[in-house]
Amino acid sequence: METYDVAVIGAGPAGVMAAWKAAESHARTVMIEREPSPGKKVCAEGVLADALVDAELKPSSEFVSNYISGAVLYAPDEAKKVNVGGKGYILDKPAFLRVLADRAVKAGSEARFETSVEDVERQDGLIEIQCKRNGQPATIRAKLVVGCDGTGSIISRRFFPRKSYQAITALQYSMTNCKMDDETKLEIYVGHEKAPAGYIWVFPKGKGDANVGIGVKGAGAKALLDKFIEKHPTAFGSAKIQRTLAAPVPVGGEVESYVADNMMLCGDAAGQVIPLTGAGIHTGLVAGKIAGEEAAIATLSGNTSAENLQRYRDRFDKLWGQRISNSLRALDSFERFSDHELNIITGLLEGQDLVEMANGFSPTKAVGLMARHPLLAMKVAYQLLTG
Ligand SMILES: Cc1cc2nc3c(=O)[nH]c(=O)nc-3n(C[C@H](O)[C@H](O)[C@H](O)COP(=O)(O)OP(=O)(O)OC[C@H]3O[C@@H](n4cnc5c(N)ncnc54)[C@H](O)[C@@H]3O)c2cc1C
Asked: Which pLDDT score is estimated for 344?
């Protein structure tokens, strides 16, 4: 039986980066993915420009569907909207992941597609991975495993309790023939009536194509999304739904523990998602990159202890930990505002404040803004009291 230094489970954003970095650092690496090709999971495919910088990839028509110049956030009554800056891309995510997976293979990683991991065990200081390909069982042995296997992660189910793990349902239509005001802008719609404790997104892919979806706590996602589409006949009156897909999004912040002897979790499996926006591509890419580097250092130096692997978590948390926990707090407070309050707040906040709050840069920003605009703050208070 072959023994690898590093086995990466999953070829999502986290896995393709982990396999690339581990192989590039000369660790004998295998990436195992149950699907025939990467990127089968539904996604709205939106990223800010920095995500590609961190992926160490230049934007290319090979995997960028559309260039984005910002976003428009609509208040619950849609009477007010806030323009938010921020350049980014709508990816063709399967093509993007294919490019990244090919890069991992070029760096020396083996890639096994259509191979499902069925069980993982510790065996004599190594990790034994039981797989199935075309119904045939196979065993892969590795010094270290990186679980980049998403929300249903088999590694976490077997070895990490993930008590704080919370996921919401996200449902998305791939639509054609939409008529958007501006195809370079993302559209975000909030409101407890429209999307309880979540939001609706319209991410234009260009030429009338769009990813139109909803993330909500609890049931009823499809009925709410259908109602939204029906209420926007200008945009969707002649549009067609080509595909409907749903998947969970982890919104509870990073899990308590995601490093153990010979093991690390990455991306959605570790809850490394910005809770308020549900964005996990960028965080997953960065986590995978760091995990791959640390996995190679650990296996090649012969020290795969949890203590040694903790450096992965420390490095990731230094970059993203605070932002994820700030965004989790922002999500909690956002849930406490009524639609009426959100209408007023949307009218008061500037676009950049909102995007910074959502991305977890500064949860006190809104309070600070109120303090800097006492007359507006009084107006809010008055409207809240009399409204
Ligand atoms: C509807 C929706 C819209 C979203 N929109 C955005 C967005 O616009 N922008 C953004 O940044 N984020 C978005 N996200 C979140 C983003 O998709 C995830 O955070 C990101 O893909 C996580 O990457 P990952 O590598 O951790 O996991 P995943 O992308 O889930 O990849 C895990 C991989 O592991 C494989 N796998 C799982 N189990 C096994 C097994 N037992 N054996 C072998 N392989 C296995 C899976 O097939 C999969 O390929 C969205 C999510 C949803 C559901």
From this structure: 66
Residue 130 has pLDDT above 50, yes or no: yes
Report pTM.
0.92
Which residue's CA lies nearest to atom 31 of ligand 1? 12
Q: Which of 269, 274, 296, 277 is nearest to 120 (CA)?
A: 269
The CATH number assigned to the domain with range 3-44+94-165+254-330 reads 3.50.50.60
Q: Tens digit of pLDDT for each residue in 355-368?
A: 666 665 554 555 55
Q: Give, using CA atoms, the residue closest to atom 29 of ligand 1.
A: 12
Best residue among 31, 43, 48 to mutate for probing ligand 1, ranked by most atoms within 8 Å of CB:
43
List, chain by chain if needed, residues with CB within 6 Å of any ligand 1 atom. Answer: 9-15, 32-35, 38, 41-47, 116-117, 148-150, 154, 170, 172, 213, 247, 249, 267-269, 273, 278-282, 284
Question: What does the pLDDT average to over 9-18?
Answer: 98
Distance 382 CA to ligand 1 centre (A): 44
> Up-side HSE of residue 86: CA atoms within 13 Å toward CB?
23
d(CA 102, CA 93) in angstroms, rounded, equals 14
CA separation (Å) from 196 to 165, 193, 331, 339, 342? 19, 6, 12, 10, 13
* CA–centroid distance, residue 24 to ligand 1 (Å): 23
Ramachandran quadrant class, 242 (left: phi over 0; alpha: psi -120 to 50; beta: rest) = alpha
Q: What is the pLDDT of residues 28-61, one digit of tens each?
A: 999 999 999 999 999 999 999 999 999 999 999 9
The CATH superfamily assigned to 67-90+166-250 is D-Amino Acid Oxidase, subunit A, domain 2 (3.30.9.10)
Q: 190 or 129: whose pLDDT is higher?
A: 129
Domain layout of the chain by residue ranges = 3-44+94-165+254-330, 67-90+166-250, 335-386
